[in-house]
Amino acid sequence: MSLWRGMGGSSKVDWLCFGIAALGVVGWKITGNPVVAIWFSILADLSAYIPAFIKTWKHPKTESPWYYALSGLAALLSLIAYKLDASSVFQIYIIVCCVIMVALIYRRELLLGKNKVKRSRAYLN
């Protein structure tokens, strides 16, 4: 949907990631092994995250941190609620991607905050 209705969708990277995602979905449908299917779904999802990472790096205010914070929290709660097994890798992957997105959204504030601390220490010395 974002290829036609969202930001981006016209670069070669966007279309390459779309192709990788399509291959991941096809691989997921072809395999009968659920663990292999999970890895294919991670591949498909990661290829969709790559353009989102790039866009969020360039335009961090275009993403809502609440979406990623709540998605990461939901994945974390599912890890706590159920025993860890081979399928838990997808929840761990989702948590990592959500943390990366929130960090990209707030990276300027995080870096600015560190610079403020450095400036105030230099001022005191």
Q: Please, could you describe this protein's structure?
A:
It is flat, with a radius of gyration of 18 Å. 12% of the residues are buried. Helix 3 (34-58) packs parallel to helix 5. The protein has 125 residues and is mainly alpha-helical. The protein has one domain. The chain contains six helices and no strands. It has helices at 2-5, 12-30, 34-58, 65-81, 88-105, 107-124.
Number of domains: 1
Overall geometry comes to flat
Integer-rounded radius of gyration: 18 Å
- Residue stretches low in confidence (pLDDT < 50, at least 5 long) are none
- Major sheet description: none
Average pLDDT rating? 81
Structural class: mainly alpha
* Fraction of residues in β-strands: under 5%
Number of strands: 0
Give the helix proportion (percent range). Answer: over 70%
Secondary-structure element series: HHHHHH
Number of helices: 6
Task: Give the end-to-end Cα distance, rounded to a whole number of Å.
Answer: 54 Å
Descriptive keywords:
mainly alpha, 6 helices, 125 residues, 0% strand
Compile the SSE list and pairings.
Elements: H1 2-5, H2 12-30, H3 34-58, H4 65-81, H5 88-105, H6 107-124
Helix pairs in contact: 2-3, 3-5, 4-5
